[in-house]
Amino acid sequence: MEIKAALNKIATGRDLSGEEMRGLMNSIMSGEATPSQLGAFLMGMRVKGETVVEIAAAVSIMRERMIPVEAPEGAIDIVGTGGDGAGTLNISTASAFVVASAGVPVAKHGNRALSSKSGSAEAIQALGVKIDSTPEEIARNIRETGLGFMFAPAHHPAMKHVGPTRVELGTRTMFNLLGPQSNPAGVRRYLLGVFAEEWVEPVAAALLANRAIKAWVVHGSDGLDEITITGPTHVAQIAGGSLTTFMISPEDVGLRTATLAELKGGDPQENAEALRALLEGAQGPYRDIVLFNSGAALLVADRVEDLRDGIALAAHQIDTGAAKATLDKLIAVSNGQA
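Predicted structure:
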């Protein structure tokens, strides 16, 4: 579909078909849209409201154009859209080490921070893990340590055509939703956090349309793009080819509640130190929220049969030193020292 024709359709509030969106995304990813056309498209889509069909089609093109990484069957991603503005400690990153240490391959797809001082890329790097690895090196990291980190810009080179316009717009666009669904390792299991409740079900439906086997799409009632411990979390679950929604709270699984202030992060070095302390057994709200998210990821990975079992296994992996051993091994392997 020609870009001008798409803009005219969007301007009148009409939705694009899957094929129209695929054609349009191919044009955008090929650099055929001018900055003004791209800006008009992104803001027009936001005002109109992106549909599940449009999101799923756009994700399919991003996946076709990405630089892939080989990962074992059953690999999972623990990822968030970012942009929740909370500036918390690195929750999904910490959870990745816990889950990988329990024998679940984790293909972690991440980027630099959107709204906090430290995104997953900054935290991983501050811990000493090499993040500018080749696809072959990342595949080796996953094989040998259970965990590999994929720096998003290195795997989605076509996004260079979109980046400057996104920065100039300075507001969330549909690309905030597309990136986390476009895992370079082609994982079909996700624990995926979104920045607004309105996107929980649509993103889950888009994952289902793109053949996810099992996933939780989550949004905390406090605004976190994680499973929170300050109150309830909205969940859309994909399992057995169907989508269901429910709420979960820390009290449901024997965890204490906390305030957002108790989960506040700092710069990458501070967050890395907190993450290492957590894996060394430090107690408190950071541990609790990582246990909650790790337990859910272990459930999505079918490593456990219920959430409480997942939380118990996550605690065991930390308390036995297994999660920290995974971190130390990834540092060594990613830097060619093992």
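Summary: The chain has a mean pLDDT of 95.
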